[in-house]
Every structure is written in C-alpha cells, then in structure tokens.
Amino acid sequence: MAALGDLRVEENLRVKIGEAKNLPSHSVSNSGRNTFCAVRLDSEEIFRTTTIEKSLNPFYGEEFQGEIPKKFRFLSFYVYESSGKTEKVLGKVTLKKEELYKYHNKEHWFPLTHQDVDAEVQGKVHIEVRFDEYLNTNPESFASHRMTVRVLECSDLSVVNGSCNPYAVVTLSHDKSKHKDVKRTNVKKKTICPQFEETFFFDLENKGQNHDRTLYAFEDAFSGELSVSVWHDDSRVSREVLGHMFRGSFLGEVRIPLRGLDINTIHSAWYCLRGREHSKNHHQEMGSLRLKISYETDHIFLSHYYNDLRKFILQSPDVHPITSSAAYILGHIVDNRQECAQPLMKLFLHHDKLVPLVKCLADWEMSKTTDSNTFFRGNTLVTKMIDELMKLVGIPYLHDTLKPSISKVCSEQLACEIDSTRLKDGENINDNLTNLKNYVVDMVTAITNSGLVCPVIMREVFHALKEVATTHFPENAMIKYRVISSFVFLRFFAPAILGPKLFEIHAEPQATSIGRTLTLISKAVQGLVNVVSSKSVPFSVKEEYMIPLFDDLTETKFVDAIKMFLDIVSSPTGTHTQCFEAPIILKEGMLIKRAQGRKRFGLKNFKRRFFCLTNQSLSYSKTMNEKPLCSIPIEDILAVEKLEEESFKMKYMFQVIQPQHALYIQATNCVEEKQWLDILTKVCNTNKNRLQMYHPAAYMNNHWLCCKLADSNAPGCSPVSGGLPVTEMQIDVDSDREVEKIHSLFLTYMDKLDALQACMENHNEACACQEVYSGDSFQQHSVVIDDTKSCYETLAEIQKHVISLEQAHKQYLKMLHKHTIVGSIDAPIGDESYGLGMSGTRL
C-alpha cells in the first residue's frame, strides 16, 4: 500500500507564444506599437519574448519550456508596449492552474483583458481569531464581546520593484453602520515571509434584552466582516483605504465573515491572499493572443512501483512481430506522437535499448514502403523518437558546429538577397550571390568537418538505420545517404540554421534581413543534400533564383565532403572516438553575481554579467561578445548549492563553491534558478574532488550565518545535495518519471485499448482496426496488426499493469486527502488545488 512519502510531484510547462492581433492603436497617430509578451507565474515573470516593432498584429513565434519548481495559482500572459525605458501593459490573459488541462497541447485564441494591478497577488497569511465575553462597565449595557485578532505571519508574498517591505492592515466592518475599525502592524523589512506576531482587540457590543448568549443574538450583533490586507511599504506611493492613508503597494487581502466563525473556539488558519474586485468596466477591445499551452504534472512513486510496467515496455524490441509490442501500440493510439515519443526515447536510452527498438521499428516501416524516396519523411513513431533524441543529446554538438558561422552572419549583416523581385535599392545581385555563397561555404564546411564529434548514440542510431535500409534496398547505392541525410540535415541542421533562437544558438533578436539570409542558407544546404542523396535538382520553378548559387556550389568538392560526413556519422562507433577539443557551450545567459573577494556587502557589489557554462569552465563577462572577466575551470567547482535567502535578503540565489571562496549568483526567477542549478550540479558531479559538506548561508559580520562559526575557513555544516560523483557528463533521464508518463498515456487512451482488444476478440485477422475508431484525428494513426494472438496478449498485460498502478495512485490520493488539514500552510483556505498540490484528478 502506498505511503505518504512514496510520491513526488514534478511539473513542466511548455508554451508556444504565437501572435497577437487587433491590439489597440495609438489614439492620436493610429499607428502600430512596439510590443513584447511576458509569461508570469502568479506575479513572477519567468519569460519574455523579443520586442516586435510598429505592429498591431505582432508575430512573436517564441517558445518557453521549463520545470516549475514552485506552487502557483495563476498562469498569466502580458502584452507590453515598450517605449524607451518605460513599459505599459496593453492587455493580459490569466488562467487558473486547475483550468490548464482544458487547453493542453492545443492552440487557442485568448481575448486580452484589462490589467487590474490590485488583482495581481500571491502568497498566504496566517490569522488567529477568538472571542471573549466580559461585563461592560456601562450599566445600560449588558454582556459585551471582544474579538482578538492575531496576525502571525505571511508566506511567499509578491516582490514589488525588486523588494518587499510588508505590513498588514486589519479592518473590522459592521453591517449596520458605516463605522470601520482599522489597525495595522509594524513594517517588516526585506522579506517575503514576514513574522508579525501582533495582536489587535476589537470591542463588539451586544445590546440584547438579556445575558443569554443565544445564536440568534450573536449573529444579529456580529454580522460584519473581518478583513486583513497586506501591503508593501513604499513612501513613493500612497493610497486611501477606508479613510486612512497607507503607503505602498497592495499585495493581497483576506475577507472573513463573522457569521461563519464559532465563538466558542479559537479559529486559526492560513488563507490564500486574493486580489480586489473592482466594479469598473472596461469596454475597450484589447485584442487577442494565440497560445499553445502544455502543462504536465507527473505524480511519481518510488522506483519499485514501476518495475513490472517498465520491464514489460523494455521487452518491446524482443517482441515479434514488433506490431504486438507495447511501444508500437502506444505510438499508434495517441493523437500526438510527440507525447509518447519523448518518454519512450528517454526510457529506452536510459536502459541502453534505444538502438534495438529504433532498428525494429525502422525495419517494420521499411517493409511496408515500396517507394524509397518517401523514407522517414512523415511523423511516424520512429522519426519522432529520433527527433527527440537529437534534441536531447545533440544540442551541444549543434552549438559547437553552427554557432560561429551563425554569429558571423548575424554580426556582419551582409546583403544576401538573390531573388531579383526582392532586391532593395542599391543592391547588386552578383555581390549578394558572392556574400551568400561565402556564408553557405562556411556553414557546410563546419558541418562536414564535425563528423568525428557527432554524439556516439546518434552515430549508433544512424548506423542501424543505414543497415536496415541497405538490407531492404540493396540495389539502391544512394539509399544509405538518403536515410541519414533526412535526419541529420533536414531534421537537425537545416531547422537550426533557419531558427537559431529556437535552438538557443543565438539569443539576441535578429533583423528581418538576417532571417531571410538564414532561410536562403538553409535552402542551399538542403539542396546540396538532395543532390547527394538523389542527384535531382532540388528547386522548383518558383525558386529559379537559387539555381546560380546551386550551380556554383555543386562545382566544388562539397558533394564528396557531404558523402564522407554521412559515412562517418553512420559508421560503427568503434571506428572513431568522440573528442571535443573546443569547449562545448552547455548554457549561457545574463545573471547577477556578487563581486568576489569583497569584505563589505552592498548593492554596489552585485553586477549583471553574461555567464557561459561549457564542458571546460564557467565564465562571465560584461556582455555576450566580450572577453571573460573571470573563468572557473570545471575541476575547481567543488559544489553548487542554493544560498539561504536571509544571507542577502534576495531570492533565487545560489553559490558556486571553489577551493578558496564561493561565487554568489542570483537568477531572475525560480525557473531560471532551477535550470542553472540542474546543469551546474550535473557538471559538478563529474569532479572527483567535489565537497561533501557546505555552508548554506553566507559568511557575514565575522561568522557564518548558518552555523555561527567565526572561522571563515571552517568546514561546511550541511551535506551537499545531488547524487554520487560520476566520471563523465551523463544524460539526465529520470526512468521512473518516464514510465509514469507512459502509464498516464495508456490510461488516457484506455478506451482505444478496449476497442482494439474488442477487435482482437472478434478474431478478425484482416482487421486494420481503424474502423474501430471514429473521428478524423485517429485516421492517420491506424493500428496495423500483424498477429492477433500476440497483440491480444500484449493488450491484456498493458491493461493489467496500468490498472494496478492507477489503483496505487487512487489509494495515495485518498490517504493524502485524509491527512490534509484544511487551513494549514500546505492547504490554505480559499484554494484547495493550490494547497494540496494535487487536484482531484491527475489527468
């Protein structure tokens, strides 16, 4: 039976921000606006697009993906107008966390609404209320009551302009009079989790005809409302509330009707802070925003819960025919093959069985294909799995190969347009052709020289594909090039050249002219590959302008160089060794770091720097293209850990511990912090000299804040996190999480499994099974069955394992709800889904 400690929750968010339309124009000029779109979790911004200039229908075309390391209540998208140093909100889309499943993995147009600043809140407040009866000294009055309100603490408050100095305002409102009693706490400086521990008293007179404490008398007298609002103290902003002037920004409030409280007990509970609802209506049309949202929550048990299902799935390459395997069936019942291709690829990769599975699936697919020209051009299970593999293991290789050439294109910005209908005034088509040819030569040379450093697992997969293809089509000498080029060029290098920002090769915004140049380069590369694999002219009549470039390139030795490259990346891995002499960029971006070696602490010691992590070092510089100011070799990174917030009163700080001192770094948000911690920890684990103990807080005022030791060289007081040291960088795969994703997919499509099993029970050997399903979405994923008996047995096993695992999930949910205390910090009143971290359904 599942125990409460047997499960962890991992959340992942992927958002494609498409475009906005019909944004409000300037009232005077009626012109376009410079806009960008930002993504927020509650009030915390985690991503923003580049700015699109002078458009009321901007196309952003950007994607965010990341693990979510914190609880949140609202996912919001803000469209800002950017004008110099000022930013103005034009409209927003706000979705509740529990509603995200409605939009999962589908594109939607969302209407933009007006921004209400007082509605953007997060955090919780702990309140205690009790009632005491006492005799009033006034002889004309009878028994009176006094309400005692304690404001204990708050948690996870919003940060306003980089700081949070909170205080609370307690207000008692009476229904039968306009009188309101208002009291407030002291201000707590620089904290999002203030400890107030302040008590306030409110006299409640009961002028009844007797001293009986009847329920009617109490409800009649105490039918008012208690409210607790939290504010950020800021002398620059003043607001009038209930006739009282308060300084600062509104952070949220709680409203508690007195009728709902039992006067005979002490009421103590955590509440989710809420925004204010204003009656002001905004009739102006704000436009709309196109989004594709995928939010996944994985509820993962301990490893032994998944052993049976994992073992059964991993047997797929050994099942004959392959159409009776669990992997094949999953890949052909889901509506979106990418959803199942990723967990299948990661699971089989982690257990060293990916190559056999790819080989079996490719062999079956080729056996059903008569035209070799159509190999791997569609989105089949095997093509999507290889796509996901190249994304997982090939990004550093991609950066190392293409980044210098793409950076050169973006920095030089030479004219490269060779379509005469698109030439600008003053441009010469021959000069442009020369510029474009030079860029293509640089790009192709970089690719063809990179064969020996192609990741080993990619070479093993390509070798398996080549073997299968030459077995099925031994008379076709070019087939070995065609099957490999369709992946490594058409699905890997060409898309990266076309959209370098999507592959994090070039982060800075690019001009329209640069995008056009990269498009032409990508077309040229694809054209050369088509010549190598099929000897056909790659351009249609509409693209005759490309033929002069193509003729020049085919006269060179590039055709032979591409063939040699394809031979290398599809050769047995024993023939070549992987050797990265040049540094491979693993992650880069702007962070805030504290100056090293400084004795005094202050804001002046914190500077924004461009950080770059490679397989050799962690360095930082003032900007992306400048010489590093500091470089830390990987062997000198002894540990990477979070830094306690109290050290500098700053969120999202972590420390890179070196032999002599630690480098303190601050990320912009929780998602960025987790990404850097994950990759740095992974790099640090390759260091044999990594620390076992560290200090979780900084050394300040001549002592460590964590253990209070005065010696600055004192050994750490807390064990480091992370696993055991490893000898080399490992691909980060959580096998249990991938099996849980596969289990959830089988559960989601259980109706299709039932229908397929019913088809088997009818003993219809000729059943192609697409007749079992209705709707257009499944027609393209019809399940072809080669052997009814073995397929039926596989379906029965899948259902047995999925149902058994789902019963464990249901038992856990019942146990969680049973042990959850409503009103605790983990389950605050007002938003159960936020408190529990799990909704009633997991799907």
Q: How do the strands of the widest beta sheet line up side by side?
A: 23-22-21-20-26-25-24
Strand content: 25-35%
**Quantity of strands, as a count:** 30
Report the top-level CATH class of the largest domain: Mainly Alpha
Helix content: 25-40%
| Major sheet details | 7 strands, antiparallel
Write structural notes for this entry:
- The longest helix has 32 residues, at 788-819.
- Helix 8 (429-448) crosses helix 12 (547-554).
- The two termini are 22 Å apart.
- The model is unreliable at 207-218, 575-580, 765-781 and 837-843 (pLDDT under 50).
- By secondary structure, the chain is an alpha+beta fold.
- Strand 21 and strand 22 form a beta hairpin.
- Helices cover 31% and strands 25% of the residues.
- The chain has 5 domains: 11-114, C2 domain (Immunoglobulin-like); 124-272, Immunoglobulin-like; 300-575, Orthogonal Bundle (GTPase Activation - p120GAP, domain 1), CATH 1.10.506.10; 585-719, PH-domain like, CATH 2.30.29.30; 735-836, no CATH class.
- The protein has a 7-stranded antiparallel β-sheet with strand order 23-22-21-20-26-25-24. Strands 2, 3, 4, 6 and 7 form a 5-stranded antiparallel β-sheet that branches. The protein has a 4-stranded antiparallel β-sheet with strand order 5-1-19-8.
- The protein has 18 helices and 30 strands.
